[in-house]
Task: inverse folding
């Protein structure tokens, strides 16, 4: 049974938990036989745990669009811009083909904030969303217009993070 009503969700804010919230949703949806497509913007590093784990999650597919390196906000690589547009195209194709019940655009808010993609391009995706498809946009600094258009917006509040105490990213926790 596909979704009867698909909405637009945004997970934003500076606190930890945005990408993992989206992955948690994917796990839940998989348990109900829903098809989930996760498109990761600005990520190409092959060691994310989720990249391995989705292979064991029925109906869930993850595609990375990015280089393995961090994107330089002030001087993005042409490949960063190209791959962010490839990600948008993959999202548009998935919508046109009705490829999934839940479409997760991980870090799309950051790609927009960094200027890799334009607001209009993201809004066009929102306009094209099939009524029965859930669309989830994650990443810091969500654009106000996207927040306005969304049905559900959660802001992760950074109260404490061990990073501030010098704790490096941990395997299985941060990646
Ligand atoms: P997660 O992937 O753990 O759910 P996130 O998606 O909310 O985190 P991002 O903004 O995408 O976080 O940050 C990328 C990386 O930085 C992740 O490895 C994340 O765990 C880590 N991180 C998240 N919040 C903070 C923070 N407040 N300070 C330092 N590092 C953080
Ligand atoms: Mg994230």
Result:
């Amino acid at each position: 049974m596909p979704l009867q009503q698909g909405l637009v969700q945004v997970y934003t804010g500076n606190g930890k938990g945005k990408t993992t919230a989206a992955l948690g949703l994917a796990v839940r949806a998989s348990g109900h036989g829903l098809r989930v497509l996760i498109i990761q913007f600005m990520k190409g590093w092959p060691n994310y745990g989720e990249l391995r784990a989705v292979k064991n999650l029925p109906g869930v597919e993850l595609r990375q669009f990015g280089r393995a390196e961090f994107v330089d906000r002030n001087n993005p690589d042409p490949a960063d811009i190209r791959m962010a547009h490839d990600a948008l195209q993959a999202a548009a194709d998935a919508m046109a083909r009705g490829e999934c019940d839940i479409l997760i655009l991980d870090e799309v808010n950051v790609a927009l904030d960094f200027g890799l993609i334009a607001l209009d391009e993201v809004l066009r995706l929102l306009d094209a969303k099939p009524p029965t498809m859930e669309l989830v946009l994650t990443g810091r600094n969500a654009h106000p217009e996207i927040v306005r258009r969304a049905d559900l917006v959660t802001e992760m509040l950074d109260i404490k993070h061990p990073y501030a105490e010098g704790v490096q990213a941990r395997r299985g926790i941060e990646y």
The pocket of magnesium ion (ligand 2) is lined by residues 18-19, 107, 138 (CB under 6 Å). DSSP finds six helices and six strands in the chain. Helices lie at 18-31, 49-53, 78-97, 108-113, 119-128, 144-149.
